[in-house]
Amino acid sequence: MNADDPVLFEMQGDHVALVTLNRPAQRNAVNGALTRALEDILARVEAERAIRAAILYSSSDRAFCAGADLSEIAAGRGNELMTAKGGFAGFTHAARRKPWIAAVRGFALGGGLELSLACDMIIAGAGASFGLPEVKRGIIAAAGGAYRLPRAIPRAVAFEMVASGVPISAQRAYELGLVNRVVADDEVRGAAVALAESIAANAPLAVRESLAVARIAAEHTDADMQTRLSAASARVMASPDAQEGPRAFVEKRAPVWQG
């Protein structure tokens, strides 16, 4: 991997992966090369046992991601921006068990917001903005934005954003519950790493099983969710970590998780 790759991968400590979109001259607009690279790195994050949390970041301080590279679509290569397993950018509909944090500086528009919505948490810089401008281009937010945004923020506000294409500020996104916290732009990476490390300190299997339930909670009845939760709890309680956690607490030491 070199500095010119469309997506960069590096570890932050032992358990946190930093995945960086790296087409700054194109405002990290998604093309075929970025899509293939991001799908490959996502698979690596899922496969490597040591990785417990991942951060999706940007090499540009002006743009997290401008969405689809319209020049690729105009050239007839729009199909390259999707994959069968991962959807847009090889990411928005990919099956993931580990937690992902979007670390957003600058604007996250169209597919950029959809990438953020596909993550589990968002850290935003004070200068960040979020929007779905697709209707201004005669298209639709088809990579999940049109239905994920109304699940993430109040219905009326989401409808306004979807229909008007007008973005909102980081502070407004925080007030609506779209982002977890807003920090100074130059502190976004550090804040995301700190959050990821706090997650990675926990029992990996318990985190994965808990998130698997939480991610689909709004889509099912309480009865269905209790059935799913009971199955997840059984898997967690059968693991060595379920014994290690209480034992470490009693012995007043840090737990050693097996995952």
What does this protein look like?
- It contains 10 helices and 12 strands.
- It is of the alpha/beta class and 259 residues long.
- It folds into 2 domains: 194 residues, 2-enoyl-CoA Hydratase, Chain A, domain 1; 47 residues.
- Strand 1 and strand 2 form a beta hairpin.
- The longest helix has 16 residues.
Please outline the helices and strands.
Elements: E1 7-12, E2 16-21, H1 32-47, E3 53-58, E4 63-65, H2 70-74, E5 82-83, E6 87-88, E7 100-104, E8 107-109, H3 111-118, E9 121-125, E10 129-131, H4 145-152, H5 155-164, E11 168-169, H6 170-176, E12 181-183, H7 188-200, H8 204-215, H9 222-237, H10 241-250
Parallel strand pairs: 2-3, 3-7, 4-8, 7-9, 8-10, 9-12
Antiparallel strand pairs: 1-2, 5-6, 10-11
Helix pairs in contact: 3-4, 4-5, 8-9
CATH level-4 homologous superfamily of the largest domain: 2-enoyl-CoA Hydratase, Chain A, domain 1
CATH class of the largest domain: Alpha Beta
Low-pLDDT regions: none
CATH architecture of the largest domain: Alpha-Beta Complex
Write down how many β-strands occur, each being a DSSP E stretch of 2 or more residues.
Answer: 12
Which strand-content bin applies to the residues?
Answer: 15-25%
The CATH topology of the largest domain corresponds to: 2-enoyl-CoA Hydratase, Chain A, domain 1
Q: How much helical structure, as a percent, in the residues? A: 40-55%
Distance linking N and C termini: 28 Å
Order of strands across the main sheet: 1-2-3-7-9-12
